[in-house]
Amino acid sequence: MRDHKQITLRSVEEFKIQILAWAQQFEDIVWLDSNQYHQTHGSYDSILAVDAFTSIQTDTLNGFKKLKEYQTINNDWIFGYLSYDLKNDTESLKSQNFDGLDFPDLCFFQPKKLFLFKDDKLIIRYLNLVSDDVDIDLESIETFPPKNNPFHSNNIKIESRISKKQYLNKVTTMLSHINRGDIYEANFCQEFYAHTDLSPLETYLNLNKIAKTPFATFLKNRDKFLLSSSPERYLKKEGLKITSQPIKGTTKRSQYSKEDLDFKTSLENDPKERSENIMIVDLVRNDLSKIAQKGTVNVTELCKVHSFKQVHHMISTVQAEALPSISAVDIIAATFPMGSMTGAPKISAMKIIETLEDTKRGLYSGAVGYFTPDGDFDFNVVIRSIMYNASKSYVSFSVGSAITSKSTAEKEYEECLVKAKAMRSVLEN
Known about the structure:
The protein is an alpha+beta fold.
């Protein structure tokens, strides 16, 4: 079904910029980049999928059922995203808040042209019907002028969907739910937005240069774009092995090594942050137990602090062996949305989130990734991301934090600003 070719790259980083620029001619693009970040569970350094042969777009109604049918029929590589609002497909929930972006709730495509990067090797897999294009495309890519300095000034005026006062009041309400015993933890988010035109590729390159995260994404679906510097894996399947790596716990970094180490150590030992992380780990363990062989759910890494260019994050790793009889899509449906972006108990937290947030989350806190022909998959968590609807000239990013009984509204607001720093600096400078 797909032709296979492998070449050795002279300069991987230069080629990556060239191929991304070349890819802009297509209406459907998914670019996934690890930025050479050392990770135990990665399969490829980078992946580019372009030019849809078949595709599916749908709302939340029977969304996972339709995806399962599409994935089964194609039995090929498919790339795309799951919006947070697919929660309404698996539970009796609603999403009625304002939506300025108007993205489909679920979108996947089967690429005609696929590029897989590993070390200095490029594996090219084209559908047979376009296999004659390989050499022509390679020549075109290699002669594409790379952008050595993509930075430029956007000078965009960013607005908050809610004021600081409104945010503080809403967190106080969330805390009252926690103190009453309705929930233990909830991820509360707020939107920042602007009405403007944007250069998506340049903006993505600028964001990625600042953040260099292991789950960076450039996604294009016609006039809709995701420019992501996500540090978080939602879920990966390799054979029967399932891996989830929730993030809970964040602190800023410092240019001064001693101060930076102090920030990291403080995060490692912070009882509030550890408590947040452990609660979500328990939620993930419960989710995975629905699709796992008995006795195989294990926490292989608990509350380990990982350092990124902008922040330190506390990350745990939970693994399981899936039941041989369960499908790839059913595994995702059983665990979606990810616990790190909801709270505990999951359904109660999502109900309260809907009443307090002012914006439909959409793709934010959803997932982008791919399925392989063997039924394996790998998906990130859509955070630290800019969404852009070019037809509506609408730019948006959201940030959030975990609210627990030990939270203070002012500190949670400050954490949101830390998480927003990279997106805001790219858009405003």
